[in-house]
Amino acid sequence: MLAAINSMLMEMMAAIARKDYEQRRERQAQGIEKAKAEGKYQGRPVDIDLHKRILELLGAGLGIRAIARHASCSTTTVLRVRDAHL
């Protein structure tokens, strides 16, 4: 009987936590949307030096993974820079 009550309480607390998480995410998304509409939210500034380094390495003919290792960034970053500039 005690195990059933404990289980029910845990499920209830998990549901409350999940609902709270969803509400916080929704409010955060609304705040970001509002800031974008007002021109205040633009994300992280571009690392110009990193972009230059990636473009140099692309020009040298290195592969995506090699560039990511040399530039200490992700392959996704390398691909984004390549697609934006080439």
Structure write-up:
The chain is mainly alpha-helical and 86 residues long. It folds into 2 domains: 1-43; 48-85. It is 78% helix and 0% strand. It has helices at 2-37, 48-59, 64-71, 75-85. Helix 2 (48-59) packs antiparallel against helix 3 and helix 3 crosses helix 4. The longest helix has 36 residues, at 2-37.
Number of strands: 0
- How large is the radius of gyration? 23 Å
Main pleated-sheet profile: none
| SS content category | mainly alpha
Mean pLDDT: 95
Distance between the termini: 67 Å
**Stretches where pLDDT falls below 50 for ≥5 residues?**
none
SSE arrangement, N to C = HHHH
Shape: elongated
Number of helices: 4
Helical fraction equals over 70%
Tally of discrete structural domains: 2
Strand content: under 5%
Summarize this structure as a short list of keywords or feature phrases.
single chain; 2 domains; 4 helices; 86 residues; mainly alpha
Question: What's the gist of this structure?
Answer:
This protein is 78% helix and 0% strand. The chain contains 4 helices and no strands.
